Automatic annotation (TrEMBL), chain A:
Coiled coil: none
Lineage: Bacteria, Bacillati, Actinomycetota, Actinomycetes, Propionibacteriales
Organism the protein comes from: Nocardioides terrae
Keyword list, A-Z: Molybdenum, Oxidoreductase
NCBIfam families, sorted: CODH_aero_grp5 (NF040766)
Protein name: Carbon-monoxide dehydrogenase large subunit
Domain of life: Bacteria
GO molecular function, one term: oxidoreductase activity
Keyword Secreted: no
Gene3D superfamilies attached to this UniProt entry: Aldehyde oxidase/xanthine dehydrogenase, a/b hammerhead (3.90.1170.50), Aldehyde oxidase/xanthine dehydrogenase, molybdopterin binding domain (3.30.365.10)
Record domain Aldehyde oxidase/xanthine dehydrogenase a/b hammerhead: where: 20-137
Keyword flag Acetylation: no
Automatic annotation (TrEMBL), chain B:
Claim: Iron-sulfur is one of the keywords in the record: yes
One Pfam family hit: Fer2
Record's protein name: Carbon-monoxide dehydrogenase small subunit
Superkingdom as given in the UniProt entry: Bacteria
Molecular function GO terms recorded: 2 iron, 2 sulfur cluster binding; metal ion binding; oxidoreductase activity
Length: 795, 162
């Protein structure tokens, strides 16, 4: 009997090549002397008019093949880059050009593009381009954007791209009736995904077939394919996009097209050569995307038990110089802010603001960390006001297990109702309290205080909409060798899809795990796909793969039943062999998947052993066409999964910190996570995702910020100065407990897990440090010097 | 403008290659683009992330902070040189596979080379020493938890092999 692999910590198959140095990341493709390399001249100014660009010093440089500015672009390439996700509230959407037309709006904006024999020469050439600028006053930070003394875009009044409001009732009336009210003003600063591999694109034009082949480090192959075709004036069928191994994404690579994703294919076609762009680290800081920056104002009305009677939130979201990804991030903040709670009335209003800084697109969590932070700071404030335990106030507001599905009365990021499918928040709270030792903490805190040590405990709860639609598909092909080739269109950037999806196929089809090969992100294999973001891959492609494997299984059983002269219902498939249930494998009639694959194709040249074996079976009716009207040759299954709405994962984190009374250094003593992502496919991979999320969260809460000066220069655009956590900064051990409330929305009961670890970080650290210090934090991240300053203000 | 090329022999994973590169060509670029050994990855090009770490006469160095010509006469070991002679995974690689010590795999080659050298210096690290051993390399995916476990597991596996 084949062991079920769903839920097993199966070792990853992709590791075999990655550990041997045989991964293929974008910059590893087309490593040959003939490949040309690109460099980009980027704006050194945050806000300026371009008066003149002089490229005359470049063209005669040995080894330089092309230098382009905006004036060299024609047709759709000369139009602004697409606004990917329009929204009725986004009334003033602006996007950049592939190469700046006559203005630059952030330090790092692409102005000229050079193609040369190698990157060194290309950078030399970039250094020879001379640009004359007419400087404009920059708008940096949310306060400056709101003040609107200067405008980022002349035609966008107040720097406001969008104002959006949602309400579930009359919040002012509810607030007026509430026994108690509080007001909080909160801020969160910018951070960024910063995957270890930056962006990278390679393109090759094949003049013999009039086709373009693109490899790009993206979270959506199909999106890039469509936009490259549109911008270059090619038919979709002329463009193939392959996502090779991707060295981390965390959201930034879902935005597309980056200017280079269009310019590289354009150069490949124009020059008839393979062309490559590999972003360097400084470029990643100043010309990809950031996230997180918000200013929040919360007014809350509540009763003596801390129950939320009225919650009124306004926030201002800094989206940088352009808004290609629309309002996804602030919409998520505004809706997922509610977490596991059910305020009687909720109103949220946000403004999305232009600034002369790098644009903002989703970063792991995508607005949820900010929402969680606003809600959880509010919960702590209510508990502090009422003198109650922080867990009690939260428990008083939980949606109860018997209230699912629970409609929050809002519209979510996907345009569907914000309706939670399942969860058990009270059980989860009990688990996290036990895991972190919540009830024992006050005694420990007193004991430490007696020794002159300051410790604090914090808690934060969140709900995460995962697995957003609209769809993903999968194709399962059983070859005559018995090998099972699986394709799904979304991409992979470290989640172990080759392994987790193969587990599902092995279980559903009944084949051997070792015989399954999964390909992701290749538009030649699956041209209809969406992408890997919003913790959607396991839910969407996992479900699609399961359905496609079921289709393949149905066909296997149909053909095998004919061949074995048995009823389909009497057959089972184990380890890739179909047999009659209960019959011994060695004596009874059996047929392996490879032989069934041979039988599925009436064209049967006996070129291998399988075909010769297959000739002993007779299938099909000799009086009918070899391929029946409702059938097709081959042993394949294809299906798509398209859910009604997102499925809602949840979690609670708790942390114990110690703050040094003298230096204000912040140390993590214990970190605990309880996590519910429905049924687990591979718990080892899920825990790895949580570990990584927590570490990223530690970075976001305690270390990472984008340090812009008033002129719009990013002062810390390197790993020397942007403090990403090393092992020395993350907790030594993370205690994890799982709760499984299966999703009723998909066949496997799974929910997404990818972003969860990072969502409550700012909230949970603010809670714990506030507990240690005795005053409430309102701005994150917090450094020791920030804390030191706060102590002086509060003393 | 054409650059002067410097001809020299570069020994990588026991194989000697004849190279002719400009003086400014980084060792990381020479390994990757001239020799096609793309297992060594470049994450920052300023020596902070450690993804490009290779062994130079057994010592871990940032190949992005070295010119290729300065590696003349040295033995360079890259991730491609860490597997056993029969292509089975070496102990550090095996430990990473068992402990789920990698996700996207981009930083991994630098960890593998660093830990290989670290365990040579200290074959039986304490937990704290295991953490210290990887404290100069950045990983954005794993939160380091399983990399620390992999260091400890690699020490066990190396001990079994001795």
């Amino acid at each position: 009997m084949t062991t079920k692999l769903m839920g097993q910590p199966v070792q990853r198959t992709e590791d075999q090549r990655l550990l041997r140095g045989r991964g293929r990341y974008a910059d590893d493709v087309a490593v040959s002397p003939g490949t040309l390399h690109c460099a980009v001249l980027r704006s050194p100014h945050a806000h300026a008019r371009i008066v003149d660009i002089d490229v005359s010093g470049v063209l005669d440089v040995d080894g330089v093949h092309a230098v382009w500015t905006y004036d060299d672009l024609t047709g759709p390439m000369a139009e602004p880059l697409p606004l990917l996700i329009p929204h009725p509230a986004l009334t003033e959407g602006r996007t950049q050009y592939a190469l700046a037309k006559d203005r630059v709006n952030y330090v790092g904006e692409a102005i000229a593009f050079v193609v040369a024999d190698d990157r060194y020469l290309a950078e030399d050439a970039v250094g020879r381009i001379e640009v004359a600028y007419d400087l404009l006053p920059p708008v940096v930070g949310i306060d400056a954007a709101r003040a609107a003394e200067h405008l980022v875009h002349d035609d966008v009044p107040g720097n406001v791209a969008a104002r959006m409001e949602q309400a579930t009732g009359d919040v002012e009336a509810a607030m007026a009736k509430a026994p108690h009210t509080l007001t909080l003003d909160l801020t969160v600063e910018r951070s960024a995904c910063t995957p270890l591999e930056g962006r990278g694109t390679v393109a090759r034009w094949d003049p013999d077939t009039d086709r373009l082949q693109v490899w790009t480090s993206t979270q959506t192959s199909t999106g890039v394919r469509a936009v490259v075709a549109a911008k270059l004036g090619l038919d979709l069928g002329q463009v193939d996009v392959v996502t090779p191994d991707v060295g981390g994404g965390f959201g930034v690579k879902i935005n597309h097209p980056w200017p280079e994703e269009l310019l590289v294919p354009l150069a490949a076609r124009a020059l008839g050569r393979t062309v490559k762009f590999t972003e360097d680290r400084r470029e990643h800081f100043i010309s990809s995307a950031h996230e997180r920056g918000q200013v929040q104002h919360v007014e809350v009305g509540f009763d003596d038990d801390g129950r939320l009677l009225a919650l009124d939130v306004r926030f201002w979201h800094d989206h940088g110089a352009y808004i290609p990804y629309g309002l996804i991030v602030p919409i998520i903040t505004s809706t997922q802010l509610l977490g596991p709670y059910k305020p009687e009335v909720y109103r949220v209003v946000f403004e999305s603001l232009y600034t002369n800084t790098v644009m903002v697109t989703p970063y792991r969590g995508a607005g949820r960390p900010q929402g969680c932070y606003a809600m959880e700071r509010t919960m702590d404030a209510i508990a502090g006001f009422l003198g109650k335990d922080r867990t009690e106030v939260r428990a008083a507001n939980f949606i109860q297990p018997d209230e699912f599905p629970y409609d929050q009365g809002l519209i979510f990021q996907d345009g569907r109702e914000l309706e939670y499918d399942s969860g058990d928040y009270p059980a989860m709270l009990e688990k996290i309290k036990a895991l972190v030792g919540w009830d024992d903490f006050p005694a420990y805190q007193q004991e430490m205080a007696a020794q002159g040590r300051r410790v604090g405990i914090g808690l934060a709860c969140y709900v995460e909409g995962t697995g957003v639609g609209p769809y993903e598909g999968a194709h399962v092909h059983i070859e005559t060798s018995g090998k099972v080739k699986v394709a799904t269109g979304l991409t992979t950037q470290g989640q172990g899809h080759q392994t987790a999806f193969a587990q599902l196929v092995a279980d559903t089809l009944g084949c051997r795990f070792e015989d399954v090969e999964v390909v992701t992100g290749d538009t030649r294999r699956m041209p209809y796909a969406v992408g890997t973001f919003a913790s959607r891959a396991a839910v969407m492609s996992g479900s699609a793969i399961h359905l496609a494997a079921l289709r393949a299984r149905e066909k296997v059983l149909r053909i095998a039943a004919d061949a074995l002269e048995a009823a389909e219902d009497d057959l089972e498939i184990n380890d890739g062999v179909v047999s009659v249930k209960g019959n011994p494998l060695d004596g009874g009639a059996v047929i392996d998947l490879g032989t069934v694959a041979v039988l599925s194709n009436p064209l049967r040249y006996a070129f291998d052993e399988k075909s010769r074996v297959a000739t002993q079976f007779t299938v099909g009716d000799p009086g009918k066409p070899p391929v029946a009207e409702d059938d097709e040759p081959g042993l394949e299954g294809k299906d798509f999964y398209s859910p009604e709405r997102s499925t809602f994962a949840s979690g609670m984190h708790a942390v114990i910190v110690e703050t040094d009374p003298d230096t204000a250094e912040i140390s993590i003593l214990k970190y605990a996570v309880v996590h519910d992502c429905g049924r687990l496919i591979n718990p080892m991979i899920v825990e790895g995702q949580i570990h990584g999320g927590v570490a990223q969260g530690v970075g976001g809460a305690l270390y990472e910020r984008m340090a812009y000066d008033e002129s719009g220069q990013l002062l810390n655009a390197s790993f020397m100065d942007f403090l990403m956590p090393y092992v020395t900064e993350v907790p030594d051990g993370i205690d994890i407990d799982h709760l499984e409330t299966p999703s009723p929305l998909n066949p496997l009961g799974i929910k997404g897990a990818g972003e969860a670890g990072v969502i409550p970080s700012a909230a949970v650290f603010a809670s714990a440090i506030s507990d240690a210090e005795g005053f409430a934090l309102t701005a994150m991240p917090i450094s020791p010097s920030d804390l030191f300053t706060l102590r002086q203000e509060h003393s | 403008m054409s650059e002067d090329l410097h001809e020299f022999a570069l020994t990588v994973n026991g194989v000697t290659h004849d190279l002719a590169v400009p003086a400014r060509r980084l060792l990381s670029d020479a390994l990757r683009h001239d020799l096609g050994l793309t297992g060594t990855h470049v994450g920052c090009e300023h020596g902070v992330c450690g993804a490009c770490t290779v062994l130079l006469d057994g010592r871990p160095v940032r190949s992005c902070l070295m010119f290729a010509v300065t590696a003349q006469g040295a033995e360079v070991t890259t991730v491609e040189g860490l597997a056993n002679d029969d292509d089975s995974l070496g102990p550090v690689q095996q430990a990473f596979a068992e402990c789920h010590g990698l996700q996207c795999g981009f930083c991994t080659p630098g960890f593998l080379t660093t830990i290989t050298a670290g365990l040579r210096d200290n074959p039986t690290p304490t937990h704290e020493q295991a953490r210290d051993m990887i404290a100069g390399n950045l990983c954005r995916c794993t939160g380091y938890q399983n990399i620390v476990k992999a260091v400890e597991r690699a020490a066990e596996l190396s001990g079994e092999q001795r």
